[in-house]
Design brief:
The complex is a heterotrimer of chains A (389), B (95) and C (311). By secondary structure, chain B is mainly beta. Chain B is 9% helix and 17% strand. The longest helix of chain B is centred in the last third of the chain and has 5 residues. Helices cover 36% and strands 16% of the residues of chain C. In chain C, strand 3, helix 2 and strand 4 form a beta-alpha-beta unit. In chain C, helix 3 packs parallel to helix 5. The chains are: A alpha/beta (389), B mainly beta (95), C alpha/beta (311). Chains A and B meet through strand 9 and helix 8 of A and loops of B. Bound molecules: thiamine diphosphate (TPP), iron/sulfur cluster (2 copies) and magnesium ion (MG).
Chain lengths: 389, 95, 311
């Protein structure tokens, strides 16, 4: 029988890692990720989890250690945030190119300078091109579910890509909510042990990480991109199996009250829950408005996304990051994804929630009102923001 | 050859599953000088074998150590360390 | 082939080549030789992690590899972290019954740059955590792969492309970082210096480092004809002179006890070593004298440590 327990989202992630019976975890502490490695270390110390917990001296080494462990066929996990993810960046790119199915939780955090330990999506956006499968969570249950699912998808021999599970620093990572934990036997049914097919072993010596001269580097990248896009099939299948086993179904683009919506608000991560309250309110008043959120960020779910926004006239994209000199990164990707569509909604982007700045219901009301105004009259501003003085 | 492969020919993660498949690479082309062994002088001490950076010197049936010119780059280490003076380097063009 | 080993008196050396023929190290490269000998000492039951550098680019141009052992490379500065994961991964898989128990040597190799500069943090971490692995530094005293730039292991007075000798410069003005001492400061079971010119000493140390439980560090001076600018046939002689002049003494530190492995009754003048190499050609008599003094000082310090070590 599954159990319903009160858990901090960070601990829900750790529970998923424990139930996945991970073999190696290497991590370096950074706020707001600390509760994940602390809990894992505790589990190993108490014998609840049979794993090597490696207290490495940096995030760069955390990911490098995971790669070494993955190369001999171990199930591996790490977690980081903000500066840690930036320090790790070089290795993050290698993990996907060498196709090691590491799972990593990222408790999204703003980037220095100035130093901020609080949440936004700048760290996530800085790694969007690294070739990891990436998903965003909105609550503690999702943090648990998607972490478990990440192992199922990443290690599938048809996939072999690392998976990043984003959860907002503090606004999700440190929030305690009821979470349904499944039976271990159910988890094992959903998540079988895959055998990594290229494990380093003297019986069949292989070379991992040969260098790519110009005659072949381009081919390696095309091969990677094709395999990455094809991983979508297993991503969807994984969610279907997850739903069939545990009763909760996930989708690349999550929809909320989108029937006949003329206006759509797009959010990612934990603020989606606040935005939903505003949508409820407006729906009650008869406004044809709905909300979508990107669950799957990479590979980008073009098809599902286009289908979802097809009937709408206006799409307002809320970004928690500035791509300097460009604007909201999600906004610009969304707009480009729709360029070839006919008809297509107008797309407006508004940035807020940086470095731990809260987004209230009023703030989302402003986002929607301002979005509509811009759609009608144009913006006239260099950058559209919310809640910034 | 690398420039004939397409993206479809590459293993997952560009892993090379055939150990030592680079051994076809012919480094003998690099040579400007080559070692000539005087078997009369050789005392079969194997120093030339153990000191060759290219593993190009191989033990022969008769117990000598001879350079495999497919690989030998012609560094001359063998000639310089041979205690019996049994190896001489000669210009590649020479017969 | 019948012959599996070559006999040197009592000693037998395998004819197997774990680093395949046909690699593209430069002509007469001492680093290639150091690796070849180290691999013969280690045998085939190894898993290797290697840093970016000459050794990696000369052996693995996709889709070809010169390695006949399981081998992994990812980046320049993370090799010690990578081998940590390999070692811990193997251990836990055995513990969880997912892999049969077997004797496997975890070996990491990197150049002096990968070891004493950019990768020193990861290496220090791996030593401190006590993983069971052997780390081999292939010290050719500069960043050779990228074109002979100075490293912290470049010796005083050597000219490199980023610390060149010139009208107002004598090249490197800093003292060579003592990486073996830094390794030893981690109180790991075994630290040793070696040089391919002393082939059996090198192989014995590599083997010992691999067999002792816990981290081992072997610092191998690897003469580089390209970067040191000497004739391609001189690697062995130069290595011998490095030891005989005392600029690169052969010693080991086993559980904290120092032992010299070659202690010539009288050190040769350093000039004999320097004069064979183009990287020192610009030095004045006075500068050579200064280097001689430094060598004397360092050698005396080392002998003090040896003398202070109980047998
Ligand atoms: C992060 C990073 N910085 C710089 C480089 C460029 N780089 C590659 S190899 C190398 C020098 C290697 O020197 P060393 O470790 O001494 O090995 P060697 O080539 O001399 O054997 C440098 C600077 C790199 N690959 N990665
Ligand atoms: S080093 Fe000279 S004497 Fe010794 S085996 Fe080689 S050729 Fe013969
Ligand atoms: S540059 Fe030096 S170390 Fe590198 S391959 Fe050439 S000789 Fe060897
Ligand atoms: Mg070097």
């Amino acid at each position: 029988m599954s159990r319903r327990v009160a858990l901090e989202a960070s601990h829900a992630v750790a529970e998923a890692v424990r139930m996945a019976d991970v073999d190696v975890t290497a991590a370096y502490p950074i706020t707001p990720q600390t509760h994940i490695p602390e809990r894992l270390a505790e589990m190993v110390a108490d014998g609840e989890l049979s794993a090597a917990y490696i207290p490495v001296e940096s995030e760069h080494s955390a990911m490098s250690t995971c790669l070494g462990a993955a190369a001999v066929g171990a199930r591996t996990f790490t977690a980081t945030a903000g500066q840690g993810l930036e320090l790790m960046h070089e290795v993050v790119y290698v993990a996907s190119s060498m196709r090691y199915p590491v799972v990593m939780a990222v408790c999204n955090r703003a980037l220095s300078a100035p130093l901020s330990v609080w949440g936004d999506h700048s760290d996530a956006m800085a790694v969007r091109d690294t070739g990891w499968i990436q998903v965003f969570c909105q609550n503690g249950q999702e943090a648990f579910d998607l972490t478990l699912w990440a192992f199922r998808v990443g290690e599938d021999p048809k996939v072999l890509f690392p998976v990043m599970v984003h959860l907002d620093g503090f606004t999700l990572s440190h929030v305690t909510e009821p979470v349904i934990l499944p039976e271990q036997s159910e988890v094992e049914r959903f998540l079988p042990r895959f055998q990594y097919p290229f494990a380093l072993n003297p019986d069949k010596p292989m070379t991992h990480g040969a260098f790519g001269p110009p005659e072949i580097y381009s081919e390696t990248k095309l091969a990677q991109e094709v395999a990455f896009r094809n991983s979508k099939e297993v991503i969807l299948q994984g969610w279907k199996e997850f739903g069939d086993t545990f009763g909760r179904y996930y989708h690349p683009v999550e929809e909320y009250k989108t029937e006949n919506a003329e206006t759509l608000l797009l959010t990612m991560g934990a603020f989606t829950e606040t935005a939903k309250i505003v949508i409820d309110d407006r729906r009650d008043k008869g406004e044809a408005i709905g909300l979508i959120s990107l669950r799957l960020w990479r590979p980008f779910p073009f098809e599902e996304f286009r289908r979802t926004v097809k009937g709408a006239q206006l799409l307002i994209v809320f970004d928690r990051c500035i791509s300097f000199g460009l604007g909201g990164p999600v906004f610009s990707e969304i707009r480009s994804a729709l360029y070839d569509e006919e008809p297509r909604p107008k797309v407006v982007g508004i940035i807020g929630g940086l470095g731990g700045r809260d987004m209230s219901e009023d703030n989302f009301d402003y986002v929607i009102n301002r979005g509509k105004e811009i759609a009608e009259k144009g913006s006239g501003r260099m950058l559209e923001t919310v809640g910034i003085r | 050859m690398a420039d004939e492969l397409t993206w479809k020919d590459l293993e997952v993660g560009n892993i090379i599953t055939e150990a030592g498949n680079g051994s076809f690479r012919k480094t003998g082309d690099w040579r400007t000088e080559r070692p000539i062994l005087d078997k009369e002088k050789c005392i079969k001490c194997a120093l030339c074998w153990i000191y060759c950076p290219d593993a190009a010197i191989k033990p022969s049936e008769e117990g000598y150590y001879e350079a495999d010119l497919y690989y030998c780059k012609g560094c001359g280490i063998c000639a310089s360390i041979c205690p019996a003076g049994a190896i001489k380097m000669i210009a590649e063009e020479e017969k | 082939m019948e012959t599996k080993t070559v006999r040197f008196g009592e000693k037998l050396v395998t004819t197997k080549e774990f680093l395949a023929e046909g690699h593209s190290f430069c002509i007469g490269c001492g680093e290639a030789l150091a690796i070849r000998l180290a691999m013969k000492a280690l045998g085939e039951n190894v898993i290797m992690a290697m840093a970016t550098g000459c050794d990696e680019v000369t052996t693995t141009p996709l889709p070809y590899t010169s390695w006949r052992i399981p081998w992994m490379h990812t980046l320049f500065e993370n090799t010690a972290a990578e081998i940590s994961g390999i070692e811990a991964g193997l251990k836990i898989l055995v513990k969880k019954g997912r892999m049969p128990e077997r004797d496997l040597i975890c070996v990491a190799m990197g150049g002096d740059g990968a070891t004493s500069d950019i990768g020193i943090q990861a290496l220090s971490g791996a030593f401190e955590r006590g993983h069971d692995f052997i780390y081999i530094c292939l010290d050719n005293e500069a960043y050779m792969n990228t074109g002979i730039q100075r490293s912290s292991a470049t010796p005083y007075g050597a000219s490199t492309t980023t610390a060149p000798a010139g009208k107002f410069s004598m090249g490197q003005v800093t003292r060579k970082k003592n990486m073996a001492a830094i390794a030893a400061a981690h109180d790991i079971p075994y630290v040793a210096t070696a040089c391919p010119s002393y082939r059996f000493d090198l192989m014995k140390k590599v083997r010992k480092g691999a067999e002792l439980k816990g981290p081992a560090y072997i610092h191998i001076l690897s003469p580089c004809p390209t970067g040191w600018r000497y004739r391609s046939d001189l690697a062995i002689e130069i290595g011998q002179l490095a030891v005989q002049t005392g600029i690169f003494p052969l010693y080991e530190i086993e559980y904290g006890r120092y032992r010299l492995n070659a202690d010539p009754p009288k050190l040769k003048p350093i000039e004999e070593y320097l004069k064979l190499q183009g990287r020192y050609r610009h030095l004045t008599g006075e500068q050579i004298q200064r280097i001689q003094e430094m060598v004397n000082e360092d050698y005396a310090k080392l002998k003090e440590k040896v003398a202070a070590s109980p047998l």
